[in-house]
């Protein structure tokens, strides 16, 4: 090991990481990275991009109040609507599950879909594209960090509401329920990656479209009621919106003892739909990002702000 | 070689006092005329930021979709359980959710102005040091969002009457009460918005969702979509102290006289305290006036404290990210 120009050089461990000096015969050789180096750099990118979101949880204490307690109260409002209507107890459970899942949806649209556009406005996007990493790794890091943030909120809503409102779950198929939950998250964050590319192209409209994706999506996803009640609209939602199909499957599995309104597929079929969505959204995100990067480089729009 | 004069004739007014060019009165501003100009400029800027990002058709859809979807969620919840057997309750939830979009836009408009200009456009520090009154600029920018919210609320009500079967008779509207509660209610909404703007001055980028989260909490205790009587009594008491509860009750009372009351009703705290089944127009206006005044004073006090702290700690110049 030697120190040259203040930089640490490890000649006896070439390929260990991207920052270690490697004597090469030509610039082309220097530009070549082994698959291991590429994988390790992308892995570091994931960790690095997830880090501010996870560490931010502990740095801004007001987050606990505004992101956990207050949204829980909003969920409670819908519970009281059902109580005022003297609805069957499982409907209160439907609201609680819906309230927990909103944490992920809000995270996907606010902190995934909008993020690349936001980074462009902040002047970071050109750095992302210039850095030797895959942009999918950045998005994946955002998703991981966002998942940790949202999980805290979702768990709090689920636990507090279940305790406070006396919701009783009847679960026969734990594995399928966990599988559906994970598939829903994968599909949601995959959709977030696709939207991130689209929003970047749309520019300032993205900000407003984000808001357009809250209540209308809640409605067509059946956030507080079984989506099957929406008829054809509900069927369309199940086929394109991970939140709709995931919520419906989780409700069927979490309240196996209750009479569930007919009109939607079984949980197993919905799990298959979710798996299909994961594949489609991830492929679409990869294609959209590649297209976007090419267009952005050609048109020089990576550093254009506030459009 | 020409010697540059010490003070150019066209800049005489900007010259230093020693040269006789500085007018101390200029630093005091133009009073009401300046405030009006600042407000109108901020309102115009706010409206352009809200509306010029797309064509009018998409903007209209955007403005209406959110409140309409909120109302539809509640209407479907109602129909799922009652099967359309409670038409008076349908009017109750449609009016409540329509008015709530107005509240949301008013509350978030002021807070988002702070976040927009600090985090996104990074202009807050310049606005703050400009000769315009800071509070006036905040209100001006918030007005545009309130306008969008008012449009969404009005259209949701119209759809409720035309499509969702909400019973409505123009001849029965109590216009005097409607005017009184609208004026007092908008003042209260702006006060709550100012309070959140003060909070957002102290927090970081993630506070985009704070206004909606706060509004979500108020949604629970303000009798927006269900009568307060279903809540525990302690929570009902908090609800009765909130101006939004009285504002919504007043609007319902003015537009749908004799409809379901969110405050009164069998087993409600209000009934236990007063012995009356539901509040009358006079009580509603008085309660709204009192609770609104308290909210306004509290908001101004918190805003001033936040303003001082933000100046002290350089928060107007801070941008964050995650």
Largest sheet of chain A: 2 strands, antiparallel
Unreliable residue runs of chain B = none
Biggest interface found:
A-B, 51 and 47 residues
Number of strands of chain B: 0
- Share in helix of chain B: 55-70%
Tell me the number of strands of chain A. 2
> How many domain units of chain B?
1
Structural class of chain A: mainly alpha
Write down the domain tally of chain A. 2
| Content of β-strand of chain A | under 5%
Assign a percent range to the helix content of chain A: over 70%
Radius of gyration of chain A: 23 Å
**Intertermini distance of chain B:** 58 Å
User: Which overall shape of chain A is indicated by the principal axes computed on the Cα atoms?
Assistant: elongated
Give the topology, please.
The complex is a heterodimer of chains A (307) and B (322).
Chain A: E1 2-4, E2 7-9, H1 27-31, H2 35-59, H3 62-84, H4 89-113, H5 115-122, H6 125-130, H7 135-165, H8 174-202, H9 205-212, H10 215-221, H11 232-240, H12 242-254, H13 267-299
Antiparallel strand pairs in A: 1-2
Chain B: H1 32-51, H2 56-82, H3 87-120, H4 124-129, H5 134-162, H6 175-202, H7 210-221, H8 233-240, H9 243-255, H10 269-274, H11 281-313
Helix pairs in contact in B: 1-5, 2-3, 2-5, 3-5, 3-6, 3-7, 6-9, 6-11, 9-11
Structure commentary:
The complex is a heterodimer of chains A (307) and B (322). By secondary structure, chain A is mostly helical. Chain A folds into 2 domains: 1-32, no CATH class; 35-299, no CATH class. Chain A contains 13 helices and 2 strands, in the order ββααααααααααααα. Chain A has helices spanning 27-31, 35-59, 62-84, 89-113, 115-122, 125-130, 135-165, 174-202, 205-212, 215-221, 232-240, 242-254, 267-299, and strands at 2-4, 7-9. Chain A has a two-stranded antiparallel sheet. In chain A, α2 runs parallel beside α7 and α4 runs antiparallel to α12 (242-254). The longest helix of chain A is centred in the last third of the chain and has 33 residues, at 267-299. Residues 1-12 of chain A have low confidence and may be disordered. The longest helix of chain B is centred in the first third of the chain and has 34 residues, at 87-120. The model of chain B has no long low-confidence stretch (mean pLDDT 86). With 322 residues, chain B is mainly alpha-helical. Helices cover 67% and strands 0% of the residues of chain B. Chain B contains 11 helices and no strands. Chain B has one domain (30-314). At the A-B interface, α2, α3, α4, α5 and α9 of A face α2, α3 and α7 of B.
């Amino acid at each position: 090991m030697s120190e040259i120009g203040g930089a640490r050089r490890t000649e006896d461990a070439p390929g260990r990481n991207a920052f270690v000096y490697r004597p090469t015969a030509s610039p082309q050789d220097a530009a070549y990275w082994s698959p291991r180096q590429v994988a390790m750099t992308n892995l570091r990118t994931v960790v690095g991009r997830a880090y501010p979101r996870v560490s931010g949880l502990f740095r801004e204490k007001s987050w606990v109040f505004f992101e956990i307690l207050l949204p829980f109260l909003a969920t409670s409002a819908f519970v009281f609507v059902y109580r005022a209507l003297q609805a069957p107890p499982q409907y209160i459970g439907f609201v609680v599950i819906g309230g927990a899942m909103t944490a992920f949806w809000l995270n996907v649209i606010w902190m995934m879909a909008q993020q690349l556009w936001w980074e462009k406005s902040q002047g970071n996007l050109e750095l992302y594209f210039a850095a030797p990493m895959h942009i999918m790794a950045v998005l994946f890091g955002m998703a991981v960090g966002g998942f940790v943030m949202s999980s805290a909120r979702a768990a709090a809503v689920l636990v507090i509401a279940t305790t406070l409102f006396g919701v009783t779950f009847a679960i026969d198929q734990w594995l399928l329920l966990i599988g559906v939950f994970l598939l829903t998250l994968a599909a949601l964050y995959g959709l977030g990656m696709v939207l991130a590319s689209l929003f970047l192209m749309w520019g300032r409209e993205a900000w407003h479209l984000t808001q357009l994706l809250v209540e209308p999506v809640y409605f067509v996803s059946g956030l507080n009621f079984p989506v099957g009640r929406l008829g054809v609209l509900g069927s369309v939602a199940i086929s394109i919106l991970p939140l709709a199909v995931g919520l419906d499957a989780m409700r069927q599995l979490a309240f196996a003892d209750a009479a569930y309104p007919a009109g939607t597929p079984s949980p197993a079929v919905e799990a298959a739909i979710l798996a299909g969505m994961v594949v489609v959204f991830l492929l679409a995100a990869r294609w959209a990002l590649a297209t976007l990067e090419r267009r952005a480089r050609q048109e020089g729009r990576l550093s254009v702000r506030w459009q | 070689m020409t010697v540059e004069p010490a003070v150019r004739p066209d800049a005489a007014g900007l010259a230093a006092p020693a040269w006789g060019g500085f007018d101390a009165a200029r630093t005091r501003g133009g009073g009401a005329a300046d405030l009006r100009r600042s407000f109108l400029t901020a309102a115009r800027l706010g409206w352009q930021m809200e509306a010029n990002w797309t064509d009018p058709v998409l903007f209209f859809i955007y403005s209406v979709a959110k409140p309409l979807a909120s109302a539809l969620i509640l209407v479907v919840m109602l129909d799922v359980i009652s099967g359309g057997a409670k038409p008076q309750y349908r009017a109750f939830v449609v009016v409540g959710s329509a008015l709530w979009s107005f509240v949301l836009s008013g509350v978030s408009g002021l807070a988002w102005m702070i976040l927009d200009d600090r985090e996104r456009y990074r202009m807050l520090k310049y606005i703050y040091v400009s000769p315009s009154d800071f509070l006036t600029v905040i209100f001006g920018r918030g007005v545009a969002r309130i306008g969008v919210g008012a449009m969404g609320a009005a259209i949701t009500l119209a759809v409720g009457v035309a499509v969702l079967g909400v019973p409505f008779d123009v001849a029965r509207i109590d216009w005097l009460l409607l005017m009184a509660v609208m004026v007092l209610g908008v003042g209260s909404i702006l006060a709550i918005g100012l309070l959140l703007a003060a909070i957002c001055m102290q927090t970081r980028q993630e506070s985009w969702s704070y206004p909606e989260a706060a509004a979500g909490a108020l949604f629970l205790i303000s009798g927006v979509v269900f009568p307060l009587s279903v809540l525990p009594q302690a929570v009902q008491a908090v609800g009765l102290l909130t101006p939004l509860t009285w504002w919504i009750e007043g609007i319902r009372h003015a537009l749908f006289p004799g409809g379901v009351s969110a405050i009164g009703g069998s087993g409600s705290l209000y009934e236990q305290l007063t012995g009356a089944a539901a509040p009358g127009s006079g009580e509603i206006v008085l309660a709204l006036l009192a609770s609104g005044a308290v909210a306004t004073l509290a908001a101004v006090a918190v805003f001033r404290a936040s303003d001082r702290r933000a100046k002290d700690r350089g928060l107007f110049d801070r941008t964050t990210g995650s």
